[in-house]
Amino acid sequence: MSKPKLALYWAASCGGCEIAVLDIEEKILEVDANFEIVFWPCVMDPKYKDVQAMPDKSIDLCLFNGGIRTSENKKMAELLREKSQVLVAFGSCAHEGCIPGLANLYSKDSLFKRVYKETPTTENSDGVYPQPVTKVPEGELEIPEFQEKLVPLSAVVPVDYTIPGCPPQPHQIWAVLEHIIQGKALPPQGSVLGAGLKTCCDECPRTREEKKIKRFYRPHEIIPNETQCLLDQGIVCCGPATRSGCGGLCVKVGIPCRGCYGAAPESPDQGAKMMAALSSVIDSQDPDEIEQIVNSVADPVGTFYRFSLAGSMLGRNRK
Questions:
Q1: Does residue 142 have a pLDDT over 80?
Q2: Which of 147, 122, 124, 155 is nearest to 69 (CA)?
Q3: What is the pLDDT of residues 74-91, one digit of tens each?
């Protein structure tokens, strides 16, 4: 009996999701024993034509990590969708855009201007930008075209399931793979796998008293009480707006939740929910004082939409 075929692909992301697969430690041997890995550019050297030659739907499971930022990302997403029975948005970048999605605050032109002209270490007096096609004596060189904005995987192809996290936690990755190895029925299409059905606050052991606060702190500005809710102490913690499933790893060691498991269930926009949560703890009725308290939040977009801007209702800077 042939093994089910597994593919993994890395688009616009840091590659942490690739490492997370290896973080399941010795269970990676069970993956090898139970799957035939047919495509994994991070560890093998397949060519685009090799994937094209595969029969449609011949890949049983594809874990696709990374957002869609270039023409190549989009092309591979479409190809792997065509070749895969089950396509999974694997990790925060594929799910909601993650850190690369924060570049949506800027236009393509402004990004290129900064990277290729204005950085202190750049010498480019001729103002040369990368071109999709460049003619050389040997012929034409092609590189992927940089798109105007980054979008999640689901914006370009239908996605069967999502495994959130930056990166997904190893125990959650293994839970999904083990489910398939054991031949269990898959949940309804569109389900979020390897995560919980509540918020990160439900996994947090800290005591919440819903105190009112006069200012917000960044983690380095305060030594938090070890048992009290971080938000009650004025530390911006995204637990109220973030899906459970990570085990509350950050909050258990005094670091506020960053929001990497994505929007909480039944919440269409993580950033909007987080802003609502913060507004409920502000201790003032005076408009000027409220503005002062709100202004103590450093980098609101990077705080509230760090992992989800590209997949949010905003999507990008509208200016």
A1: yes
A2: 147
A3: 999 999 999 999 999 999
SS3 assignment, position 26: helix
Sign of CA dihedral 223, 225, 230, 235: negative
Give domain limits for the chain.
5-99+148-181, 108-147, 200-304
167 prior amide bond cis, ω within 30: yes
- Helix H segments across 69-165? 71-83, 92-96, 108-113
Dihedral class, residue 77 (left if φ above 0, else alpha if ψ from -120 to 50, else beta): alpha
User: 304 in helix, strand or coil?
Assistant: helix
As a residue count, the chain comes to 319
Judge: domain 5-99+148-181, CATH 3.90.550.10.
no
Q: Which residues contact 52 (CB under 8 A, 6 or more apart)?
A: 79
Q: Tokens representing 168?
A: 């997904």
pLDDT above 70: percentage of residues in the chain: 99
pLDDT digit string, tens, across residues 261-309: 999 998 889 999 999 999 888 988 889 999 999 999 989 999 999 999 9
pTM of the entire predicted model = 0.92
**Burial grade of 137 (CB within 10 A; 0-12, 13-18, 19 or more):** exposed
Please state, rounded to an integer, the average pLDDT across all residues of the chain: 93
pLDDT at 2 over 90: no
